[in-house]
Amino acid sequence: MFLVLTYVSGNARVAEYLQVPHVVGAGELTVFCAAMIGAGLGFLWFNCHPAQVFMGDTGSLALGGALGIMAVLIHQPLVLVIAGGVFVLEAVSVMLQTGYFKYTRKRYGTGQRIFLMAPLHHHFEKKGWPESQVVMRFYILCILCGVVALSTLKLR
């Protein structure tokens, strides 16, 4: 999705047509995005069940930071929130769980939970969904969020 956005921002004619800010030098970001996509696909090939390779926090935080910087550089930070809807949902579920637990502990003496476990994907696993089902459903949601984010290009 960001591959398309960086290409659009770097191409003056397409940026003018879609009414997005033209960013000189965004073509280099397109190459960087393509490299990230290739590396991600290579990772996912070996991360399928049963996983042979794990990413961990260092890799995921670096990827998230790179996406965030790209969104800021092409002047599209709101599109990042839409495209990363699943990641936003996961983070919000943790904030809601923690906040509600602290509030109910202070108010009633015992903390109550909204979800069985946070982040949200663990809640579904605790409900009995197999891990592969949770992963596939979240992949589908990620694709839908990407399509919605791309559709915002012409809604301006």
Features:
2 domains, 156 residues, mainly alpha
Polypeptide structure, described:
The protein is built from 8 helices and no strands. It has 156 residues and is an all-alpha fold. The protein folds into 2 domains: 1-80; 84-149, no CATH class.
- What's the number of structural domains? 2
Low-confidence stretches: none
* Spatial separation of the terminal alpha carbons: 17 Å
Helix content: over 70%
The share of residues in extended strands comes to under 5%
Order of helices and strands: HHHHHHHH
What is the structural class? mainly alpha
Determine the number of helices (DSSP H or I, runs of at least 4 residues). 8
**Overall body shape:** globular
Short description:
This protein has helices at 2-10, 12-18, 26-47, 56-73, 77-83, 85-108, 120-126, 131-151.
Topology:
Blueprint: H1 2-10, H2 12-18, H3 26-47, H4 56-73, H5 77-83, H6 85-108, H7 120-126, H8 131-151
Helix pairs in contact: 1-3, 4-5, 5-8
